[in-house]
Amino acid sequence: MKALVAGLFGLLLSALSTHATQAADCGQQLDARQRREIRTPRHLLVFAPSPAPLALGRHFGLDIVVCPRAGASLPLALKVDADMPAHRHGMNYRATVQTLGEGRYRAEGLFLHMPGRWRLLFDLSADGRLERLSHEVDLE
Ligand SMILES: [Cu+2]
User: What is the CATH number of domain 2-139?
Assistant: First the structure.
């Protein structure tokens, strides 16, 4: 019985460390100075703007990597948008997202047209659920 418990505990530890390694490796190919992370219980999303850094009144894209956590699946679809909650408006442009495979995505056509606090919005659909992730950006 002791051996069985120890064995199960070992299995649990190795499962946990496997997940930790995957999460730690997520998005490592993106520029370390520019990349940002958003964690939820189900996904880790890492993104980096290009051109970087984000600037007012300039078209930019995002390189995005999504890594599933805790038994979640890769997103079937990812939508990217941005808004200014304090002003109740979004962008004047619609971003497009290309799926590159293995959790990698490229969003194009973002444009933040006024100074203030913006939110980058990432809508993931995976496992029949929609999950909205957001990241705040202050632009001067
Ligand atoms: Cu505004």
Answer: 2.60.40.1930
What residues does each domain of the chain span?
2-139
The whole-angstrom separation of Cα 101 and Cα 87 is 36
Q: List the structure tokens of 42.
A: 């189900």
- If you measure from the C-alpha of residue 135 to the centroid of ligand 1, how many angstroms do you get, rounded to a whole number? 16
8 Å CB contact between 43 and 81: no
- 16-67, pLDDT tens digit by residue? 434 443 566 899 999 999 999 999 999 999 999 999 999 999 999 999 999 9
How close is the Cα of 138 to the center of ligand 1, in Å?
A: 11
